[in-house]
Amino acid sequence: MEDTEQWPQGVVHFPEGLPGFEKLREFVLLQDEELLPIVFLRSLVEPKICFPVLPIQRIQQDYQLRLGEDDRRFLNLSEDPVPGRNVLCLAILNLGTGAQPPSANLFAPIVVNMENWIAKQIMQFDSPYSAVAEV
C-alpha cells in the first residue's frame, strides 16, 4: 500500500459532521511527506479544526471493521468494506504529552468510501477495540 496514492485530492464529505463538530461537514486530507503515514484531516470552514489521523491498518494490521446495514447505506457501499480497497479507515490520534504516550481511537474510526468520498465516524460497539490504543 503506497501512502501517497491512497489520499484523496478533493473534499471528504461528512453529511452528519463529526461527533462534537456536527456543523463542520467538509474536510480535506493534508499530507507532509516527512510525517507520512500521519496526515491531517482539516475542516474547510474552520481551518483551525484539524485532526491528526493514521490508516488503522498501520496500528492494527488485522483490524476488523464492522459496519451495520444502516452505515453501509449511509456511505453508499455496494460491497463489504475492505480498508485500503474500497474504504479508507482512519484512526484519530491523540499525540499525547510528556506524561501520556500517543494513542489512537480504534473504537470509532473514520470510514471514507473511496469511490464518492462520503465519510462517517463509526463506533464499533461490538468490537474489542479501545478509544485509547497506544501507538
Give a summary of the structure in a few sentences.
The chain has one helix and nine strands; from the N terminus they run ββββαβββββ.
What can you see in these coordinates?
- The protein is mainly β and about 140 residues long.
- It has one helix spanning about 70-75, and strands at about 10-15, 25-30, 40-45, 50-55, 85-95, 105, 110-115, 120, 135.
- Strands 1, 2, 3, 4, 5, 6, 7, 8 and 9 form a 9-stranded antiparallel sheet that branches.
- The longest helix is centred in the middle third of the chain and has 7 residues, at about 70-75.
- It is built from 1 helix and 9 strands.
- It is globular.
- Mean pLDDT is about 85; it is low at about 1-5.
Give the topology, please:
Blueprint: E1 12-13, E2 26-31, E3 39-43, E4 50-55, H1 69-75, E5 87-94, E6 103-104, E7 110-113, E8 119-121, E9 133-134
Antiparallel strand pairs: 1-2, 2-3, 3-4, 4-5, 5-6, 5-7, 6-9, 7-8
Are there runs of 5+ residues with pLDDT below 50, and where? 1-5
Q: How far apart are the termini?
A: 20 Å
Secondary structure: number of strands: 9
Q: Globular, elongated, flat, extended or rod-shaped: what is the shape?
A: globular
Mean pLDDT: 87
Total of DSSP H or I helical runs spanning 4+ residues: 1
Strand and helix order: EEEEHEEEEE
Helix content: under 10%
Strand content: 25-35%
Task: Report the sheet with the most strands, covering strand number, pairing sense and barrel closure.
Answer: 9 strands, antiparallel
Structural class: mainly beta
The whole-angstrom Rg is 14 Å
